[in-house]
């Protein structure tokens, strides 16, 4: 406390005191928090009776949000480190297709298919990063190239091998596989049965599943999303490496001068983004039981939008994983909520554009306060 | 060379130099950037390196800080011959460089900037975490010593003035055990008040026993704080003078290589 007193006494008389409330608000997540409150208020008012907020409805938009969150965490850390990855969407399609080819076409055990796919995709992520830091080209261009390269392979490989662009039958081969259940399974089923028995959540009232809860567990996808958010947040704000991520994106040259291994940080973040995309793909493949050549289309932009809504700067060096998670939540709630509210689904894009613009303007304002720019 | 009477070329010193660079040459392909520069620095002194643009100041300090390897010549650090493979070697030996623009990241807080690349860690359950509390405390303490009152350790560097940023960068280098501090044009982009703050910081650092290499092309700033002055021109040392042995006009003339500036000065009425 004594520090604060001293600084006001000895500080510059031209600096106005900033109220504690305003100071508490100056954080990268502010845009995301305001947006979340606004979105939930909107849908509570206009879609409360539509089933959006019963157990099934909540699970519906939670799953969609969780998907966005998984790729947003990777995109967020990479953007703070000062780079983009436009190949995320293609990577999702590619990873899913690889799992399908390895496990169905080549009849490998599913756990091996998943592990090899992770290794392959993270290596491609590293290659992305290596090319960017070696050539000094903008990551925008390098990863745009990979967007096409990976999508091309995702279409070419199944067509050549299986003469089709969707490979199914993964559910059958994944039955009982220990690693597949980490991506496709559900947890806390007992809790949901108990909740259903006690009338706390809805249960089926007719049919063969009478008495069982409508929502019968938390999908692993949600656990992955929460896990990645916690990991990303702790890494960014509580570790030495997190400081390097900020430094690498804030000013790579200044960071290098201070002894930060900027290139290593950037390559690792490209690998992490690829990892997140592969997690997304694996969960999706295990859920659908198939891999399609068009999976993950436009996901790279959705991830970037979630991150920007969450308060990160496109130019790097500033942002927050929690903010990105809120951005992803807004994204998921709006996308599903408009459906519940009975709004024409094409208006989703309008809504999204408005939120994006509002968030970016708010974030620019916050950043100006923080850095004292005018 | 009439200047020779006034300038002694690195003669016997009362104190032992901490670093001695003898007849350093650096060629980039066919370009001779340094054609034999000799320089030494004692601890607790401020040695100003002056010269016009293109005189070789930057190449020379980059050689000193390990960025370039000299084509010829020798570097003695604490009386031992030294060969820096890269800047990390120089930094770990205790040679820190504060660059004019490339020192601080505006979007990051002062304490995060202060410990950038040297973060203190604390182990919790086998995982090492960034010890933010310790970092914040040390930052506030060091900043107070330098006469900068922060609103808090979380204040972004972007809100500091240019002079304060230089001061943070200098304080950081000294905190991490710099024996030699190379300041590359620390005052060239600053206003009058901020310049005096930086010069005062240099004085504080010098009194702590750190050797300061102060690069500038502003004679006034150099004279305000320097103990010795070495002038570079076209990749060569023109000479070294002690404080009080040389007038600003003589220094100015030397830096510009004499003749042309004399003519210019005539037409401008001696105001440069």
UniProtKB/TrEMBL annotation, chain A:
It holds the Pfam family BPD_transp_2. InterPro entries: ABC_transp_permease (IPR001851). One of its GO terms (cellular component) is plasma membrane. Keywords: Cell inner membrane, Cell membrane, Membrane, Sugar transport, Transmembrane, Transmembrane helix, Transport. The chain crosses the membrane at residues 30-48, 60-81, 88-106, 112-133, 140-158, 217-236, 267-289, 301-334, 346-366. It is found in: Cell membrane. One of its GO terms (molecular function) is transmembrane transporter activity. Coiled coil: none annotated. It is a multi-pass membrane protein. It comes from the Bacteria. Part of the binding-protein-dependent transport system for D-xylose. Probably responsible for the translocation of the substrate across the membrane. This is Xylose transport system permease protein XylH. It comes from Ruegeria denitrificans. The gene is xylH.
UniProtKB/TrEMBL annotation, chain B:
Pfam families: ABC_tran (PF00005). Gene3D superfamilies: P-loop containing nucleotide triphosphate hydrolases (3.40.50.300). Keywords: ATP-binding, Hydrolase, Nucleotide-binding. SUPFAM superfamilies: P-loop containing nucleoside triphosphate hydrolases. The keyword NADP does not apply. One of its GO terms (molecular function) is ATP hydrolysis activity. It comes from the Bacteria. PROSITE patterns: ABC_TRANSPORTER_2 (PS50893). Its EC number is 3.6.3.17. Residues 19-259 form the ABC transporter domain. PANTHER family: CARBOHYDRATE TRANSPORT ATP-BINDING PROTEIN MG119-RELATED, SUGAR ABC TRANSPORTER ATP-BINDING PROTEIN. This is Arabinose import ATP-binding protein AraG. It comes from Ruegeria denitrificans. The lineage of its organism: Bacteria, Pseudomonadati, Pseudomonadota, Alphaproteobacteria, Rhodobacterales. The gene is araG.
């Amino acid at each position: 406390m004594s520090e604060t007193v001293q600084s006001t006494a000895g500080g510059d008389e031209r600096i106005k005191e900033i109220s504690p409330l305003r100071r508490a608000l100056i954080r990268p997540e502010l845009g995301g928090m305001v947006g979340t409150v606004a979105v939930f208020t909107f849908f509570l008012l206009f879609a409360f009776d539509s089933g959006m907020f019963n157990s099934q409805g909540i699970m519906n938009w939670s799953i969609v949000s969780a998907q966005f969150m998984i790729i947003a965490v990777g995109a967020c850390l990479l953007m703070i480190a000062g780079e983009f990855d436009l190949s995320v969407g293609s990577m999702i399609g590619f990873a899913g297709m690889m799992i399908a080819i390895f496990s169905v076409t080549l009849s490998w055990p599913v756990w091996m298919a998943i592990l090899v796919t992770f290794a392959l995709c993270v290596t491609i992520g590293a290659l992305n990063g290596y090319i960017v830091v070696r050539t000094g080209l903008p990551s925008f261009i390098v990863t745009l190239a990979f967007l096409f390269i990976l999508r091309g392979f995702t279409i070419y490989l199944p067509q050549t091998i299986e003469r089709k662009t969707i490979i199914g039958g993964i559910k059958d081969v994944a039955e009982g596989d220990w690693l597949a259940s980490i991506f496709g399974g559900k947890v806390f089923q007992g809790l949901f049965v108990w909740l259903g028995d006690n009338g706390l959540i809805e249960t089926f009232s007719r049919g063969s599943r009478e008495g069982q809860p409508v929502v019968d567990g938390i999908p692993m996808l949600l656990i992955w999303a929460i896990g990645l958010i916690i990991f990303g947040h702790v890494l960014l704000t509580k570790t030495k490496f997190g400081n390097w991520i900020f430094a690498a994106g804030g000013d790579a040259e200044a960071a290098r001068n201070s002894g930060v291994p900027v290139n290593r940080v950037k390559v690792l973040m490209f690998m992490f983004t690829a990892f997140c995309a592969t997690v997304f793909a694996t969960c999706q493949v295990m859920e659908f039981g198939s891999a399609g050549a068009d999976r993950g289309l436009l996901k790279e932009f959705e991830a970037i939008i979630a991150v920007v809504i969450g308060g990160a700067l496109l130019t790097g060096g500033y942002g927050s994983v929690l903010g990105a998670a809120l951005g992803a939540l807004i994204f998921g709630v709006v996308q599903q909520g408009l459906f519940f509210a009975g709004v024409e689904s094409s208006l989703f894009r309008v809504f999204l554009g408005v939120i994006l613009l509002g968030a970016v303007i708010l974030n620019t304002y916050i950043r100006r306060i923080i850095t004292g720019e005018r | 060379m009439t200047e020779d009477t006034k300038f002694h070329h690195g003669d016997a010193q009362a104190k032992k130099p901490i670093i001695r660079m003898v007849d350093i040459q650096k060629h980039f392909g066919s370009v001779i950037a340094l054609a034999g520069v000799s320089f030494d620095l004692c601890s607790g002194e401020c040695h100003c390196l002056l010269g016009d643009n293109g005189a070789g100041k930057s190449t020379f300090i980059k050689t000193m800080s390990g960025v370039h390897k000299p084509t010829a010549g020798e570097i003695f650090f604490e009386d031992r011959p030294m060969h820096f493979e890269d800047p990390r070697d120089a930094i770990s030996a205790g040679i820190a460089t504060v660059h004019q623009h490339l020192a601080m990241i505006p979007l990051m807080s002062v304490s995060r900037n202060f410990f950038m690349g040297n973060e203190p860690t604390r182990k919790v359950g086998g995982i090492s975490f960034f010890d933010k509390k310790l970092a914040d405390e040390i930052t506030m303490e060091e900043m107070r010593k330098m006469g900068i009152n922060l609103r808090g350790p979380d204040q972004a560097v972007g809100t500091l003035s240019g002079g304060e940023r230089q001061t943070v960068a200098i304080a950081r280098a000294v905190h991490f055990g710099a024996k030699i501090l190379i300041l590359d044009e620390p005052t060239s982009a600053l206003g009058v008040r901020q310049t005096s703050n930086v010069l005062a910081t240099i004085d504080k650092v010098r009194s702590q026993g750190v050797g300061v290499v102060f690069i500038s092309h502003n004679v006034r700033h150099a004279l305000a704080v320097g103990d010795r002055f070495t002038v570079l021109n076209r990749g060569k040392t023109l000479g070294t003078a002690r404080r009080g042995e040389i007038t600003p006009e003589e220094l100015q003339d030397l830096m510009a290589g004499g003749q042309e500036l004399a003519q210019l000065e005539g037409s401008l009425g001696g105001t440069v």
